[in-house]
Amino acid sequence: MSETKEGSRTMLVVGAHSADFVWRAAGAIAVVTSNDGKAVVVALSYGERGESGELWKQPGQTVENVKRIRHEEASQAAAALGATFQCFDLGDYPLSVDSAALSRLTDLIRETAPDVIVTHTEKDPFNPDHPVAYVATQRARLLASGAGVASGFKTIKPPELFLFEPHQTEQCEFVPTTFVDITAVFAQKQQAMKAMAAQQYLHQYYTGASGESCTARFRVAGDSLCRGFSACFTTGGDDIMSDPKLFARYGVATVYEAAGRKGLIDVPLVQVVPGSRVAGPARTVRCGQGDNLMVHAVLDQVQPGEVLVLTMPEPEPVALVGELLATQAARHQAAGLLVDASVRDVQELQELGLPIWARWIRVRGATKTKVGAINEPVEVGGTVITPGDIVVLDVDGAVVVAVEQVAQVLEAAAARQKREDDMRKKLEAGALSYDLHGLRSLVEGREKT
To answer: Are 175 and 216 in contact (CB under 8 A)?
Structure first.
């Protein structure tokens, strides 16, 4: 995406809900408009059912009033970015795009003739509306361009297609490769976020997420123009972006070694969803013994991308989590769960897909009567986990990185990964670790005993 004034560009942003563009692309929008470009934002729905929880807490609230408030907030946010806003009002949870709405979106793309379209990822197991928006946008894009062939109606040059970075990048199989430095316009993004008063809880999360975003591999999602992108800002000119999600890519073993062999959760863990891996800031919970009252309570506080760490004074095989609690955690976009107890409903948990690690699988149920604590330090497997520490989980187990060590450990993990990549090439070429590590002299240089 060009960020220069020469040949200014037009961006079309298509979100499932009215605030999606603010959290996921506000910085990129501001970069375009600040360089004499044009940005048009369209929301397929207001998110009046599933994205407006704070508004529904007001007595006597109505659907039409929620939509009105959401429209006003989104319009103010778009104006802060120098963009225009419109909403198709198709309804949410579920979002449904019929042929009339698809034609409307196609006409908008033809009329706007954008250089770039930005929308959701094709896969999002925790938000059913996002893939619907992707499919509709991709299809409308192809229709507007005549699928690359001569047509009996007006067509445009196929716009480049970029994808928002989702909350759970690993579960959405998304790794961004294109990132936009939004340092110069971050104040505009903050102003836009402030306008979305109905979702205040996301302000802090996305302020941090912008500062932690980084690049990764090229992503093809239906055609060669489709890539993933992420916005980032720098606070001090550092090249390293301290993105907790990177820890999941490096994996538990590499992070553990990079951290100086510290932070290991040294107990056997069951990986409930095979192949899952995740990393995110800890939201800690200390339940009463044999009780999961506080698991219900924390679901009112969990923020997108957090790892819920569920403990008791003494670990025991009592099921703190089953299908219904996990469904709520997924809906509120927790990154994953670390349960220092047991879980049950395993088949349903696997179908749900939320990454979960537990000490045991047992069906013995918990009570719901004992008040515990949320966001206090807890101990799991000999390691103290403080709220906000980064918890990394994969098939090897779990490791914790203290929040103040994130940048340092990430840098060490990247260096270790590079060394291992170089080593792997040598081993594949026939070299032996026995020689590369200088181990031969330790064995053959000594006298046999």
So the answer is: yes
